[in-house]
Amino acid sequence: MLMKRQSGFSLIELLVVIAVVGILSSILITGVNHVRNKSSQMKSAANVRSIGGALHMYSQESDGNLPVWHDYTVGKYWWQLLRPYVNDDDEVFHSPAHEEFDATNDTTIAQTISYGWNFAVVGRHIGDKSYSGDFVQPVFLFDNPGKTLVLTDGPRYDSWGYITILHPADPDRYGDGKAIGLFLDGHIEIREQVDFTIEDPYFIPEEAMPSMK
């Protein structure tokens, strides 16, 4: 006598279905995260381009000089000096992938701003007697603007709006190990974060340093 097969899934079939659903979910989540990270990266790149435009306008109205990281004579950081040229929109200084950014007030922005000024090359500060050797940099003194790194994505925490070889860009911001860099001629590059570290010449670039001729 033939046994009638019971309707429904067997345990093995259920386990197979669960495994397949898990794999598909993992693929879907990975894809969604990738799309979200790329979108954040593109929006951040647009912000950096806007900063580049603001830098150009600032220089034109400042006798060809670049802003410094911190101008003690007026009590402002570089982003505050550029703020009027981005319509006072502080979101320009915020990477969408940088959740630690806090726009509550100027102090929290200074602590958590998403981008870091390459002050070792383009200007540290003026007006501080303890750093009497620092001064503003005129654009025309740079022989190779296309190789002069102005800023990149900053560190994740306590950025204070600057980058150095010991205070580099966050490598995990966009999930791909890359960072966005702005150069003095206005172009941007999305490169491996390690390219903007001690292994790269951008922080002491002889070919980009101001000419003293």
Automatic annotation (TrEMBL):
GO terms for cellular component: type II protein secretion system complex. It holds the Pfam family N_methyl. The keyword Transmembrane helix applies. Gene3D superfamilies: Glycoprotein, Type 4 Pilin. The chain crosses the membrane at residues 12-32. InterPro entries: Bac_GSPG_pilin (IPR000983), N_methyl_site (IPR012902), Pilin-like (IPR045584). GO terms for biological process: protein secretion by the type II secretion system. Keywords: Membrane, Methylation, Transmembrane, Transmembrane helix. PROSITE patterns: PROKAR_NTER_METHYL. The keyword Membrane applies. NCBIfam families: IV_pilin_GFxxxE (TIGR02532). PANTHER family: GENERAL SECRETION PATHWAY PROTEIN G (PTHR30093). This is Type II secretion system protein. It comes from Ruficoccus amylovorans.
